[in-house]
């Protein structure tokens, strides 16, 4: 005698089933569709491009006459020809609606928005995610598709935003409040305002990539932190245009000998081959670490509690 799964068993099964399989199961089995909409859909990685959706490891590529599916693990792909010719953005909209409409919650661990979401995502659809990548897209419009329960975003990557829409995207709430902000942009020169941007950011952790910063600019940033008496817990990582900290050391000594920033609170500045420690307040330091990576050299600038042995321990 065959016995069907109970409601609770079905709910447990759906909860841990791969998102692609759940979507296909719901489309083919009306008996589980209603329950499926109530059980939160959990997605490891979702990438949306202009003509392509990648849901975990399954890629769906659309055109005005076909839908192509490819499993990245099995390296298999097949195409479904669409009998009616439609604009690709309308096909994408219908596909997104087929995947997600009616679902109570859509939780995405890593969401990559690499196109104008408003052109392909149905209005009103929102995603919950701790990790968001917005590239070739407006953060102002992408913010509309992020569920408020996701805020503040744990890790936000922002790159190649349209300046015509986002003149200063760092004022947008979702950017300003992100716990870790990673900026990928090719600022053509220091005059483009990157220093003003970095010095005004309220994010506690920031990473900048796509251009190298000269030692003079790093020294200006450090002295501005001293003037602001920056709180403990801030960190910036940037590509560095030099192979060591020697020039930075000389520039810092020159800048820190002037005015109020010269105050060292009875402690010495510490310089080593890969680390610099500058007194910030009576109880905190600015620490600069030289990071040797496979690509460009990077430096890490952070505010820490004053620990006398911190430099010696790192050597």
Q: What is the beta-strand fraction?
A: 25-35%
* Relative helix content: 25-40%
Question: What is the distance, rounded to the nearest whole angstrom, between the alpha carbons of the first and last residues?
Answer: 71 Å
How many strand segments? Answer: 15
Low-confidence stretches: none
Biggest β-sheet strands, sense, barrel: 15 strands, mixed
Query: H/E series, N to C?
Result: HHHEEEEEHEEHEHEHEHEHEEEEH
Which of globular, elongated, flat, extended, rod-shaped describes the shape? elongated
Number of helices: 10
Strand order of the largest sheet: 5-4-3-2-1-6-7-8-9-10-11-15-14-13-12
Q: State the secondary-structure class.
A: alpha/beta
Radius of gyration: 25 Å
Average per-residue pLDDT, rounded, comes to: 81
Protein name: DUF38 domain-containing protein
Pfam family, one: DUF3557
Could you characterize what this model shows?
The chain is 27% helix and 29% strand. Among the domains are: 1-39; 186-315, no CATH class. α2 (19-28) packs across α3 (30-38) and α8 packs across α9 (246-255). The protein is built from ten helices and 15 strands. A 15-stranded mixed β-sheet has the order 5-4-3-2-1-6-7-8-9-10-11-15-14-13-12. The longest helix has 14 residues, at 215-228. β14 (284-291) and β15 form a beta hairpin. 24% of the residues are buried. It has helices at 7-16, 19-28, 30-38, 88-100, 139-142, 173-176, 194-200, 215-228, 246-255, 310-314; strands at 41-49, 52-55, 58-62, 66-71, 76-81, 106-113, 131-135, 155-159, 180-184, 205-213, 235-240, 270-271, 275-279, 284-291, 298-305. The model has no long low-confidence stretch (mean pLDDT 81). With 315 residues, it is of the alpha/beta class.
